[in-house]
From TrEMBL:
Regions annotated as coiled coil: none
Species per Swiss-Prot/TrEMBL record: Perkinsus olseni
Name of this protein: Magnesium-dependent phosphatase 1
Biased composition (Basic and acidic residues): 25-35
One MF term in the entry's GO annotations: acid phosphatase activity
Amino acid sequence: MVKRRVKSARRRDKNVDVDSMTSHAKAESTTRDDQENLTGLEDLRERLAVLPTHVVFDLDDTVWEGDVEFCYGPPFKYDGRVIYSKGSPSLTLFNDVPAIMTWLVRHGVEIGYASKTAEPRWAMQVLDLIHPIIGQPGLSLKKVSAGEGWGWQNKQKHMREIRASTGLDYDECVFFDSMYSNCEDVSKLGTTCGYCPRGMTNEVFINTMIEFSDKMAGSSSSSSDSNASSVIG
């Protein structure tokens, strides 16, 4: 009986060692991927005449693949891009999100979230689990948030909620969502919107940031020309 218990304990120890090695290998692999993805954003700042003050993200199918409200609920665990709900893989962080969030933090751009999920408390727990900021492992997606908007209403309501807590100006903000109708609604506020039907990617991020910068630079130029004309006249 004693021998059987010892053998059983050894098998458990081996399983723990294998799980630990697998988790470590996943961490190393995702870290390499994150560094490579961040390299793809290196020259973006030089291409932007103007930075937004805030960037707001939808969550489900934008930051991660899947719907948090359809998970099994807490406890949640995050490992190698995958969010587990009660031990079952339920959500997957999109590959370029760590690089994008790191870029925004490094350039002083405020981050916000706007989600129609029916489980905002679960969403906040998941955001608190994910620490994607390269070189700053203590920062979770929850900690870098300047404000959130929740509820199954028009995304304009979410933006108003975030504006109330952050003071953002709609036209100085960028918004990303995987649903085109949400982008249409928010764009009516004067916000530059990035449509990401397959989740956040560096390509969508770069193109939308350039669109925002060009729009703001053009607006500034038009305003300057108008002021100059009025002075001359």
